[in-house]
Design brief:
The protein is of the alpha/beta class. It folds into 2 domains: about 5-215, Spore Coat Polysaccharide Biosynthesis Protein SpsA, Chain A (Alpha-Beta Complex), CATH 3.90.550.10; about 230-340, no CATH class. Helix content is about 45%, strand content about 15%. It contains 14 helices and 10 strands. It has helices at about 15-25, 45-55, 70-80, 95-110, 170-175, 190-195, 225-230, 230-250, 250-255, 255-280, 285-300, 300-310, 310-315, 320-340; strands at about 5-10, 30-40, 60-65, 85-90, 95, 120-130, 135, 150, 170, 205-215. Strands 1, 2, 3, 4, 5, 6, 7, 8, 9 and 10 form a 10-stranded mixed beta sheet that branches. Strand 6 and strand 7 form a beta hairpin. It is globular and about 60 Å long. The protein starts with a strand and ends with a helix. About 40% of the residues are buried.
Length: about 350
């Protein structure tokens, strides 16, 4: 069994996938790299995947499938992984070599312990095009370092502290046992990936190293705001799935104060992002969609709705009239700075 399986979802990625995969290869035989060619048809992505498999047999595996979107590629990776632990690295991102070796050393150490690690959290770095100063997302103020811990041992989560796909390494079997199945042909499913498995996570470990380099700069990138507005239906779809999941598991989550607090805060952030994008698109259709989204939350759980609607972000996203919407946009920009949204 490999120590770590890394899935690299690729869709027409020939321009940048080499940098990503080359950064992963330094992990050597402890690592399995699953290059998932998600129906690429416009470039040499599939051929490049096959070339890596031929050059690094036993380490790289090329998987070719019909196009199903990012979530489908991650699902395929989970199903095919043979490693004890599992990570996703997007094809336009990469990892830092020294931090990567530290992560592998720690995973190897923890794999032999008497408590099974469910989730490791590391820092990630925003590699934003044109910016010399790189923003690092750290967790040292909320996650005690260098020890196996439970949710109860975490410190208070504020709304600016949230765990992204870039931050986490999960135990592979946990992802299978929790029944995670990301929707196909849908963007922004990474929010589900770092949300739905959390109630199954019992033992965490925070390693304070800057492992993942998250590239932001391509005009067609899914986190580009104009692109997000054009795909707002998919953002809303993911938002509603998160509402359903949280409400359906609420009674169980309430038994664990820190986990409940964190997941509620994260859902509130996603509600804010969805609302702000719908306001910024400035169409009657999207303003009605925002109203419907909040109504959906209200119908699912009235108490949760009132908590979020009357919170600082809920109030900021629901100011009345044209002037109110303008203030909402400004409020969103402030929230972006405070809570570190993309």
């Amino acid at each position: 069994m490999k120590l770590l399986s890394i899935t690299v979802p690729c869709y027409n990625s020939e321009a940048y996938m080499h940098k990503c995969i080359d950064s992963l290869l330094v992990g050597g035989d402890d690592v399995e790299i699953l290059i998932v060619d998600d129906g690429s048809a416009k470039d040499r992505t599939g051929e490049i995947a096959d070339e890596y498999e031929a050059q690094f047999p036993g380490i790289v595996k090329a998987i070719h499938k019909e196009n199903g979107g990012h979530g489908s590629a991650v699902n395929t990776g989970i199903a095919c992984a043979s490693g004890l632990f599992f990570k996703v690295v997007d094809s336009d991102d990469w990892v830092k070599e020294d931090a990567y070796h530290q992560v592998l050393d720690k995973l190897r150490e923890l794999a032999g312990g008497n408590r099974m690690l469910d989730m490791m959290v590391c820092n990630f770095v925003y590699e934003k095009e044109g910016e010399k100063r790189k923003k690092v997302m750290r967790y040292r103020h909320i996650l005690p370092e260098n020890k196996m811990l439970t949710w109860e041992e975490c410190h208070h989560f504020i709304k600016g502290h949230y765990i992204l796909m870039h931050s986490v390494i999960f135990r592979t079997r946990l992802l299978r046992e929790c029944g995670l199945k990301l929707p196909e042909h849908t963007f922004y499913v990474d929010n589900l990936y770092v949300f739905e498995p959390l109630p199954y996570v019992k033992n965490l470990y925070y390693l304070d190293v800057n492992l993942y380099r998250y590239y932001i700069g391509r005009e067609d990138q899914s986190v580009n705001e104009s692109v997000m507005i054009s795909r707002i239906d998919q953002q809303i779809k993911v938002n509603k799935i998160m509402i359903d999941y949280f409400v359906d598991h609420k009674s169980e989550l309430l038994k664990n104060k820190r986990l409940y607090q964190y997941m509620r805060n994260y859902l509130e952030i996603i509600m804010t992002v969805s609302s702000a994008l719908l306001i910024r698109s400035n169409t009657e259709e999207h303003l009605e969609a925002k109203k419907e989204l909040w109504g959906y939350l209200k119908n699912k759980d009235r108490i949760l709705y009132l908590q979020m609607r009357n919170g600082i972000m809920g109030n900021a996203m629901n100011l009345p009239g044209k002037g109110g919407r303008k203030l909402s946009v400004e409020g969103y920009k402030i929230c972006q700075k405070i809570f570190k949204f993309n």
